[in-house]
Design a protein that fits this description.
The structure is a single chain. By secondary structure, this protein is an alpha/beta fold. The chain has helices at about 20-30, 40-50, 65-70, 80-85, 100-110, 140-150, 160-165, 180-185, 200-215, 225-230, 235, 240-245, 255-260, 275-280, 365-390; strands spanning about 10-15, 15, 55-60, 85-90, 120, 125, 135, 140, 155-160, 175-180, 190-195. The protein has a five-stranded parallel beta sheet with strand order 4-3-5-9-11, with helices on both faces. A two-stranded antiparallel sheet has the order 1-2. It has a two-stranded antiparallel sheet with strand order 6-10. A hairpin with a 2-residue loop joins strand 7 (about 135) and strand 8. The longest helix is centred in the C-terminal third of the chain and has 27 residues, at about 365-390. The structure holds iron/sulfur cluster (2 copies) and FE3-S4 cluster. One iron/sulfur cluster binds near residues 166, 167, 196 and 197. One iron/sulfur cluster binds near residues 243 and 298.
C-alpha cells in the first residue's frame, strides 16, 4: 500500500492510530474474504460515517461474559475500536446513568433513532410465567425486547445464550429460556454471533461490514456470518494431522495429551462445530491461544445442539464426513458439497476412531473433563506451557488404534 492511498484518512480513529486501524481493517477484509485493498475502503467508510450508528445493548439471562470478552481484549484495543465505531447509548453494565435515568436514556435514544439503531442482545430470554425471571426496571426483558426489536434496523445476537438459548436453556431449563429469535418469533432481520463468549473480532468485523456495505453480511442457514462460521473447527485444527494418523490423547496428562495429539476421544466437538477459533485465535497472545491449542477439547460452545446440550466427554458426531472425507447431508436436509460451502480438505481415508474397550477416555478423564472445561479458558495457557516443557517418554506412546 502506498502512502498516497491513505493520506486522506484521519491520523486517528478515536484513540486508535491510523496505522493500527488500517492494519485491523486489512485483517478484517481478509477474514471476510475481500481483496486486501478493501481494508482502505472499510477505513474510509468508518471515517465518512459522520454519525456513528446508535447501538442499544439489551441483556437477558447472561453472565456478562460476552461484554467482558469485548472489553478485556488487549492489543489491538478491540474495545476502543468498538466504542469509537458506535454510539453505545444503552448498556446495563457500561452506561453511566443508572436506575430510572438509564431507562429514560434508553427510551429517548430509541425514540430519536427509530428504524436506524442496531439492537445488540446478549443473554437468553425466559418465557416461563410471563418472563418474570429476568426483569429490567421492573419490566420483563421479554416485553422490552418485543417493544424494541420492531423499531431497530437490525438485531445482532451476541453469544450462544442470545443465539440459541445457551447455558440458561440447558436441561431442565427452569425459566423456559429461549433465543432472541424464538422469543420474537423470528420476524426480524437478525445476525447470530454464537460462542461462549464469541470471539470479539467476529462481532467487530460484523459491525464493520454493516457500516461499510450498509447491509447484513452473507449468513448461513443458522443466521451466522459466513465469513466467520463457514468452516468446521476440525478443518483448520492444528491437531488434525494426528486425527488423520490415528494419534489420540486418551486421558488428560497422558503422553498423547502432552505431545499435542488429537483430543477427539476426550470429547472434542471440533468435527461438528462451525467457527473460526483455530484461525482467529483469542486475546492476541500468539499461537495456540484457543481451547484446543491449549489442550482442552472444543465443547462446541458456538454450535446449536452441541454446546450445553451434549455431554462434554461424548465423542463428536462425524456426520459431516464419510470415511472417504465427503461431507454428508446435514440435519437440516441441505447438502454441503466438498470444495463448495465447507471447503473441505479431507484426507483420502480417516483413521479408525472407535476405541476398543478399555482404550477410550478413562473414567478419571471423564470425571475431570467437566471441571476442566470450566477453568480451561483461564488456566489452559499455563497448562499448555507446562505440558510443552515436560519431557515426553517415547516408550509411553499411546498406542495407535
Ligand atoms: Fe455468558 Fe456465554 Fe451466555 Fe455470553 S454466551 S452471556 S459468555 S454464558
Ligand atoms: Fe482438532 Fe478436535 Fe478435530 Fe482432533 S477432533 S483434529 S483436536 S478439532
Ligand atoms: Fe467454543 Fe470450541 Fe471455539 S469451545 S471457543 S467453538 S474451540
Amino acid at each position: 500500500m502506498k502512502d498516497k492511498d491513505y493520506q486522506h484518512l484521519p491520523d486517528h480513529f478515536g484513540l486508535v492510530s491510523r496505522r493500527d486501524f488500517l492494519k485491523f481493517c486489512a485483517v478484517a477484509a481478509a477474514s471476510m474474504g475481500l481483496p486486501l485493498g478493501m481494508g482502505v475502503k472499510i477505513a474510509e467508510a468508518v471515517a465518512n460515517n459522520l454519525k456513528k450508528p446508535t447501538v442499544i445493548w439489551l441483556s437477558g439471562q447472561e453472565c456478562t461474559g460476552c461484554s467482558e470478552s469485548l472489553l478485556r481484549s488487549t492489543h489491538p484495543t478491540v474495545e476502543k475500536l468498538i466504542l469509537d465505531l458506535i454510539s453505545l447509548d444503552y448498556h446495563e453494565t457500561l452506561s453511566t446513568p443508572a436506575g430510572d435515568q438509564a431507562e429514560a436514556a434508553r427510551s429517548k435514544s430509541i425514540e430519536e433513532n427509530k428504524g436506524k439503531f442496531i439492537l445488540v442482545v446478549d443473554g437468553s430470554i425466559p418465557m416461563k410465567d410471563g418472563g418474570i425471571y429476568c426483569q429490567i426496571g421492573g419490566k420483563p426483558v421479554l416485553q422490552i425486547l418485543k417493544e424494541t426489536a420492531p423499531l431497530a434496523m437490525a438485531v445482532i445476537n451476541i453469544g450462544s445464550c442470545a443465539s440459541w438459548g445457551g447455558i440458561p436453556s440447558s436441561s431442565p431449563n427452569p425459566t423456559g429460556a429461549v433465543s432472541t429469535a424464538e422469543a420474537l418469533g423470528g420476524k426480524f432481520p437478525m445476525i447470530n454471533i454464537p460462542g461462549c463468549p464469541p470471539n470479539p473480532y467476529n462481532f467487530l468485523t460484523t459491525v464493520l461490514y454493516v457500516l461499510t456495505f450498509k447491509k447484513l453480511p452473507e449468513l448461513d442457514e443458522k443466521g451466522r456470518p459466513k465469513f466467520a462460521y463457514r468452516r468446521l473447527i476440525h478443518e483448520a485444527c492444528e491437531r488434525r494431522a494426528n486425527f488423520d494418523a490415528g494419534r489420540f490423547a486418551l486421558a488428560y496428562g497422558d503422553d498423547g495429551h502432552r505431545r499435542g495429539w488429537c483430543l477427539y476421544k476426550l470429547g472434542c466437538k471440533g468435527p461438528e462445530t462451525f467457527n473460526n477459533c483455530p484461525e482467529q485465535l483469542f486475546g492476541d497472545v500468539g499461537p495456540r491461544s484457543w481451547p484446543v491449542g491449549t489442550g482442552c477439547p472444543c465443547f462446541g460452545c458456538s454450535e446449536k445442539g452441541v454446546g450445553f446440550t451434549k455431554p462434554i466427554p461424548e465423542q463428536a458426531s462425524l456426520q459431516y464426513f464419510t470415511p472417504g472425507g465427503v461431507p454428508l447431508e446435514q440435519a437440516d436436509g441441505k447438502v454441503r458439497v466438498g470444495g463448495g460451502e465447507l471447503r473441505l480438505t479431507p484426507p483420502t481415508a480417516f483413521a479408525p476412531i472407535e476405541a476398543p474397550e478399555g482404550h477410550g477416555a478413562s473414567k478419571v478423564a471423564v470425571g475431570i473433563a467437566a471441571g476442566l472445561a470450566g477453568v480451561a479458558a483461564g488456566a489452559a495457557a499455563v497448562t499448555a506451557l507446562k505440558l510443552g516443557k515436560e519431557k515426553s517418554d517415547p516408550g509411553a506412546e499411546t498406542k495407535k488404534e
